[in-house]
């Protein structure tokens, strides 16, 4: 394997872990907790034993972190997220605890290859993409910068689907990540809370007939049971808890049904409870319209809130101090029903009055908006909401009355503005607007990049912003440098340590010391050698998995992310087709060899996205087997993009494709991972690309295409893609090749609707940006040709990306939103 090329180093010589002792411990765990001895242990047994050994070391710190927060009466953060895309945890834990080398050695003394068992650890894919990965990076950063937090989510039995490519098409298979058990988690049967659905609301009146309180009488009841996973920060400073809820049927009900002989009924109840934590909805930009989704959202919101209130009451005895001791964060609108649920708990269970409860609620919650795409703004039909959550419906109306009165009192809101502020969308089918509910119930609403935050103020939340002008703020996303540099790129880490010392390991800002070395020819050579080894690692993977040979000296041009029309993989593929054409028409030119890599999953119901995957594979087949291309261009679609694959692909990239239609990508975090690992970016002025340009400098990033304002202008002036296409010979030629079946001789019309869409409306401005994109690609070839220049720019990228660390992001959340010390 490649471990010979890329050596992993331990960063904590002070820990002085004896590999011999570690080996004994592994054997002990294997024997007494796994019931096996070394002679019969399978690789999975070794994996489980290794994880349990490191887990045991984490537990002491975990208990003390939790106790510390309690003793100091520290304010705690609660991060509610329907997704945590954590990936594998073993390397993370070993690396953060400085045990990597010792563990390798210990296992090797037992005849076990660390890399082999590490590859067996399932990739915990409890998320779709960027939003879920952000939650995972935040958990790691909070443990590192010492913020006491509980992450709350759902323990999906089937997380993100596993993608296979068969005959070029995406096939979705279940990812059974729990099949071999999950050695990281602790089931907490004693932390279980009841969750109700449906039923009716009774009002209780006092002797004088005045309304005293409401009592919700749900007809369905299930249990949410906690499973805890420790999250360890850098150098094991703090260990926080990720608490995931699993659905379970309420035993007494089941028992009664069984006793009454209703076995089928009992089974149905148990399946219903099970279903709540069975699947993650595999769509990241459209709300799954299903009732089950709303049930999941309520399920994990109420369980988390009950847990939080119980903890608060047992420590402080009174809920009025909740906002001083708890900051509850809503990661997107998925948990926003929590606003109504906290109100219900405060009003109906704890007997507070409305004004008190509303004040506590607003001071406790904060909300992050992740998208402006209209189809992704969650809303639920009023009849569905009312049927599942009748009491919450009443509360939503009560909150709505409150905010509409506030708006009217201001006097300068038009009827249209009032209806856009309303929590209920009255146009057509009446729906509850979850974004408005989250906004109304939070003291802070943040966007995830400077551009996105400004657009939020001008578009979706324009009127709510006018009503509550102090609430919207920006927190540009970040990534954890532990996973996205130290762990995934040990070669670059070792080189940087050698060149500038170890300070950057603890303070990523110190990586800026590399900047001066961009002009040092010897350093550039070493940097290029590391990049080359990382590319070789990817080339081996591609050769093993796909049987495609790629040359590591070619430029590795990579676009990996969810497949979505706004992310414009199509623009990249069409450019590949145009380049293919050019190479064949002008064989005399000195073309720079390139490999274009694609990877990403499409939502199973997203027709065009799946067609784009097929097109990438069709183009790859034709281009890769055409001898006239002479290997100057290769196209590779790498299946099953997930965190573990990202860890191999990010460090291997020369060029990072961040080419969304301006105004549509809220931030992006893939863009940051690439640049931190020394790739240059080709991108639009969208999301965090705008801020990346400011940090790395205009000369070290390739910006092309329309700006957000220009996109809006083009649309307003009646954009006509047909004329644009006619005016670009390269684009016309590429599109006619695709639409006439050059890449799909078995089904020549396969891409007709895709290309027709470009001619007819081109919602995502692919045609409008094509020439600018293709020209920029040819300029990039010229920079690539000048290798010292290229690597100097790449080094500047690494040195100047530290601001995009999620440590920085988390410090800003802590100081400016949560009011907790860091
Ligand atoms: C970082 C990451 C993403 C987000 O990528 P974008 O390019 O920002 O959309 C998605 N999936 C995985 C596995 C990631 O690691």
UniProtKB/TrEMBL annotation:
Residue numbers carrying N6-(pyridoxal phosphate)lysine: 673
Organism: Oryzicola mucosus
Reactions catalysed according to its record: [(1->4)-alpha-D-glucosyl](n) + phosphate = [(1->4)-alpha-D-glucosyl](n-1) + alpha-D-glucose 1-phosphate
Name of this chain's protein: Alpha-1,4 glucan phosphorylase
Subcellular location: Cytoplasm
Physiological role: Phosphorylase is an important allosteric enzyme in carbohydrate metabolism. Enzymes from different sources differ in their regulatory mechanisms and in their natural substrates. However, all known phosphorylases share catalytic and structural properties. Allosteric enzyme that catalyzes the rate-limiting step in glycogen catabolism, the phosphorolytic cleavage of glycogen to produce glucose-1-phosphate, and plays a central role in maintaining cellular and organismal glucose homeostasis.
Cofactor(s) required, per the database record: pyridoxal 5'-phosphate
One Gene Ontology molecular-function label: glycogen phosphorylase activity
Listed InterPro entries: Glycg_phsphrylas, Glyco_trans_35, Pyridoxal_P_attach_site
């Amino acid at each position: 394997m490649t471990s010979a090329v890329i050596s992993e180093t331990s960063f904590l010589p002070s820990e002085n872990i004896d590999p011999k002792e570690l080996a004994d411990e592994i054997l002990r765990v294997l024997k007494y907790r796994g019931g096996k001895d070394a002679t019969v242990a399978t690789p999975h047994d070794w994996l489980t034993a290794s994880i349990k050994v490191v887990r045991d070391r984490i537990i002491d710190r975990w208990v003390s972190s939790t106790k510390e927060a309690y003793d100091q009466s520290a304010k705690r953060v609660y991060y509610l997220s329907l997704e945590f895309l954590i990936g594998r945890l073993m390397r993370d834990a070993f690396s953060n605890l400085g045990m990597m080398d010792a563990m390798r050695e210990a296992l090797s003394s037992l005849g076990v290859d660390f890399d082999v068992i590490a590859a067996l650890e399932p990739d915990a894919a409890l998320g779709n993409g960027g939003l879920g990965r952000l939650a995972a990076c935040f958990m790691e950063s909070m443990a590192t910068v010492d913020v006491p937090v509980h992450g709350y989510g759902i323990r999906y039995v089937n997380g993100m689907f596993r993608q296979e490519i068969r005959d070029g098409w995406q096939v979705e298979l279940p990812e059974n990540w729990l099949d071999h058990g999950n050695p990281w988690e602790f089931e907490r049967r004693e932390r279980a809370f009841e969750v109700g659905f449906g039923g009716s609301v009774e009002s209780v009146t006092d002797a004088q007939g005045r309304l005293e309180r409401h009592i919700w009488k749900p007809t369905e009841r299930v249990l949410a049971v906690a499973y805890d996973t420790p999250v360890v920060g850098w150098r094991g400073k703090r260990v926080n808890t990720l608490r995931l809820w699993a659905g379970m049927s309420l035993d007494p009900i089941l028992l009664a049904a069984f006793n009454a002989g209703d076995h089928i009924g009992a089974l149905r109840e148990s399946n219903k409870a099970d279903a709540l934590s069975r699947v993650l909805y595999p769509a990241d930009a459209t709300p799954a319209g299903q009732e089950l989704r709303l049930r999941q959202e309520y399920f994990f919101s109420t369980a988390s809130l009950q847990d939080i209130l119980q903890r608060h009451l047992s420590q402080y005895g009174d809920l009025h101090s909740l906002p001083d001791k708890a900051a509850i964060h809503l990661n997107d609108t998925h948990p926003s029903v929590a606003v109504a649920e906290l109100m219900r708990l405060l009003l109906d269970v704890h007997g507070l009055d409305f004004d008190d409860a509303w004040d506590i609620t607003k001071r406790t919650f904060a909300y992050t908006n992740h998208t402006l795409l209209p189809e992704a703004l969650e809303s639920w039909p009023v009849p569905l909401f009312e049927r599942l959550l009748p009491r919450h419906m009443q509360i939503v109306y009560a909150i709505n009355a409150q905010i509409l009165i506030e708006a009217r009192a201001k006097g300068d809101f038009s009827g249209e503005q009032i209806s856009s502020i309303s929590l209920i969308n009255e146009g057509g089918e009446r729906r509850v607007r979850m974004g408005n509910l989250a906004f109304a119930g939070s003291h802070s609403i943040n966007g995830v990049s400077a551009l996105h935050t400004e657009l939020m103020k001008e578009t979706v939340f324009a009127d709510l912003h006018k009503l509550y002008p102090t609430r919207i703020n920006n927190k540009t996303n970040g990534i954890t440098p532990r996973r996205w540099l130290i762990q995934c790129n040990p070669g670059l880490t070792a080189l940087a340590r050698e060149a500038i010392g170890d300070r950057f390991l603890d303070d990523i800002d110190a990586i800026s010391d590399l900047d001066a070395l961009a002009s040092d020819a010897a350093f550039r050579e070493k940097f290029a050698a590391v990049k080359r080894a990382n590319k070789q690692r990817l080339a081996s993977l591609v050769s093993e998995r796909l049987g495609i040979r790629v040359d590591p000296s070619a430029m590795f041009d990579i676009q990996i992310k969810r497949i979505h029309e706004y992310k414009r993989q199509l623009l990249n593929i069409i450019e590949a087709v145009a380049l293919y054409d050019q190479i064949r028409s002008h064989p005399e030119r000195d073309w720079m060899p390139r490999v274009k890599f694609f990877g990403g999953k499409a939502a199973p119901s997203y027709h065009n996205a799946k067609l784009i995957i097929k097109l990438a594979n069709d183009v790859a087949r034709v281009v890769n087997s055409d001898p006239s291309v002479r290997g100057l261009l290769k196209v590779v679609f790498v299946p099953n993009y997930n965190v573990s694959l990202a860890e191999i692909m990010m460090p291997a990239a020369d060029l990072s494709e961040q080419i969304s239609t301006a105004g549509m990508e809220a931030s992006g975090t893939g863009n940051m991972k690439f640049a931190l690992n020394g790739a240059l970016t080709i991108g639009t002025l969208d999301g965090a690309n705008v801020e990346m340009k400011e940090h790395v400098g205009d000369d070290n990033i390739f910006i092309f295409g329309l700006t957000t304002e220009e996109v809006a202008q083009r649309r307003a002036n009646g954009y006509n893609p047909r004329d644009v296409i006619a005016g670009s010979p390269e684009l016309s030629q590429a599109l006619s090749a695709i639409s006439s079946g050059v890449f799909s001789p078995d089904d020549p019309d396969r891409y007709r609707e895709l290309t027709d869409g470009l001619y007819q409306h081109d919602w995502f401005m692919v045609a409008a940006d094509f020439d600018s994109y293709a020209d920029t690609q040819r300029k990039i070839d010229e920079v690539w040709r000048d290798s010292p220049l290229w690597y100097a720019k790449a080094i500047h990228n690494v040195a100047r990306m530290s601001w995009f660390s999620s440590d920085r992001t988390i410090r800003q959340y802590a100081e400016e939103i949560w009011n907790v010390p860091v």
